[in-house]
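Researcher: Next sequence.
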Amino acid sequence: MAFGYQAYLTITQRFISSEERKKADYYSRVALRSRGRVLRSPNTLLKLQAGRVPRHCRLLNANWPDNFSNGAVSCARALKLENRDFMHGENTSSKDRDLARRSLWYLYSVEALDHDWIDHAPPQACQEADWFSLQCLYAIVISSAAKMLYNQRALRQSLVEREQKLETAYELLEGWRNHLPAPLQEIHKHDMHRILDDHQTRHVALSIFRQYHEAIFMIYFPWTGSQSGGLVSEDCRRKSMELCVTSAQVVLAIANQILCLDILDSKFLDLISVSICMTFLDVATSSGAKKSISYLSMGCGIFGRLNLLDSEVPLADVLELTRTAQQIKGR
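Model: Next structure:
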């Protein structure tokens, strides 16, 4: 309850008094004092649950200690939850099996575990929009893309093999997008009013939006520049650039439509910064990138608004990039 209260205060958009924050911090510190006893206790599903909760809270606040995470993974391994025999064991109730499956896949989705280690499928959606199931599928997509493109074996692939793997990674990501609830399938487009107007799912929708475009950059950005020469064809390099620029423009367009608190709460800042840099790169390397200048100006407006709330926002750097881009196009 203490961790849940702290997490609630982190994501809520209502005003939080200093007294409420102090109270939440106090209860959290009390709960965290028990971590030693939890880690030394016998390996059970209850211990695994205790290890998951602080990890979830740490995703919302990077200042949270991460002591429980390794203990939770060790507990899952000791219980052999990755083994399908556990999931079909006669001595385990269906409720415990479901709890074990969801707990293990939760750890997988946030700890970058190897899903080949798990000998059973992710939990099936139990309702129309099961966000947890969708998160597990996303983790599989990202893990698979990283394996196909960026491990040592992948870096020794031929040009044809690498381009095939790039296409496969993109198809996996698009398959995940097509599994999203109908309105969220539009996260690759500039208009998300139908999604953003639903305040019950707004925070989740923005998180999923961010994840999709982060994945585009992860898959394609390394192949956009001159350093990819000889590793992919010129057509593939051009396609990679186009997909990254399109994602950057969509990110900036959506960021321009939402509140500053939405951006700060959904960890949008890094994605916006990457999108601005991607847009500048398009201006610097493309002869027909006048459209990108307007998106850089949009980025200035976004960071200008954010600067009113957070003086650490690099507004001056964005303004300088925009001036440089205008000079490049004015030559």
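Model: The two ends are 61 Å apart (CA to CA). The CA atoms of residues 300 and 318 lie 6 Å apart.
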